[in-house]
Amino acid sequence: MTTSAEPRDRRPRILCTNDDGIHAPGLDLLVKVAAQLGDVTVVAPDRQQSATSHSLTVHRPLRVTRIDESSHVIDGTPTDCVLIAVNSLMPSPPDFVFSGVNHGPNMGEDVLYSGTVAAAMEGTILGIPAVAVSFASRAEDRLGGYGPTLTRILQSLVDRPDFPDETFFNINLPDIPADELKGVRITTLGRRVYSDSLTRREDPSGREYFWIGGGVSSWTGREDSDFRAIRAGYASLTPLHLDLTNYSLINEVKSWPQPV
User: Fold this and answer.
1) Any residues with CB less than 8 A from the CB of 254 and at least 6 apart, and which?
2) Residue 180: beta bridge partners?
3) Model-level pTM?
4) CA 255: distance to chain centroid?
5) How far is CA 111 from the centre of its chain?
6) Which domains can be identified in the chain, with CATH numbers?
7) Residue 126 burial (10 A CB sphere; 0-12, 13-18, 19+)
8) Is the pLDDT of residue 37 over 80?
């Protein structure tokens, strides 16, 4: 287990980041919540980095701009932000990495594409307890009301005497007013299938281009899936593990004819 137990003579050090950029209202909310739980450092991208997944910037130098004593902006991905913050910008590693609050849900396969989730995953890879937070809507007027709820959820994780090894938590908040929230459910990842999400057109010069996004999606999954909790008016809390091995197939694959 990765310990998150805190000496009682100091507050936890919390690194906050996101994939919507330094000026996103969701990051502002997360920082306000985190400030109630510990000492906050903000290191975030200088622009929108949604769907960058766990990408690192390796083909050009990265620039860091200092905003104030505890806030920096980086012209890179969320993963860049966590890596540079932990290894260079912070005087000592944080006790927690909080990523979000993302403007839009991160459920099911979203976690494989999401820069928000990737930032939390990078914290986990570096041995730091981490949480990704998303709001299943882009209605910013509703997001602000979730401050007290998010504080309680994150406080319950910060207060744990230990943190599961190689695991981080993915939180999604439903698209309803905070005072209508029914509670929190512990969930699994659902499955989402997209259709008509690729647009193929020509620009005014007659050159073909493709645009990824949009379309419609359909969900499937167990009764305890994240999307079912969100649809029912609950916040979802999903533990995610770094190990993608399908252990149930190990013995079967061993019985297959070996290629060499």
Assistant:
1) none
2) none
3) 0.91
4) 38
5) 8
6) 2-191+221-254 (3.40.1210.10)
7) middle
8) yes
Q: What is the 3-state secondary structure (H, E, C) of the chain?
A: CEECCCCCCCCCEEEEECCCCCCCHHHHHHHHHHHCCCEEEEEEECCCCCCCCCCCCCCCCCCEEEEECCEEEECCCHHHHHHHHHHHHCCCCCCEEEEEEEEECCCCCHHHHCHHHHHHHHHHHCCCCEEEEEECCCCHHHHHHHHHHHHHHHHHHHCCCEECCCEEEEEEECCCCHHHCCCEEECECCEEEEECCEEEEECCCCCEEEEECCCEEEEECCCCEHHHHHHCCCEEEEEEECCCCCHHHHHHHHCCCCCC
Q: How far apart are CA 254 and CA 250, in angstroms?
A: 6
State phi, psi for 43 to the nearest 5 degrees.
Answer: -135, 110
Structure tokens belonging to residue 49: 């980095």
- Angle between helix 147-158 and helix 25-35 axes, rounded to 10 deg: 50
Judge whether 141 and 176 are in contact, CB under 8 Å: no
CA distance 260 to 241: 32
Predicted confidence (pLDDT) per residue in 82-141, tens digit: 999 999 999 999 999 999 999 999 999 999 999 999 999 999 999 999 999 999 987 788
Q: How far apart (Å, rounded) are the C-alpha atoms in residues 10 and 3?
A: 16
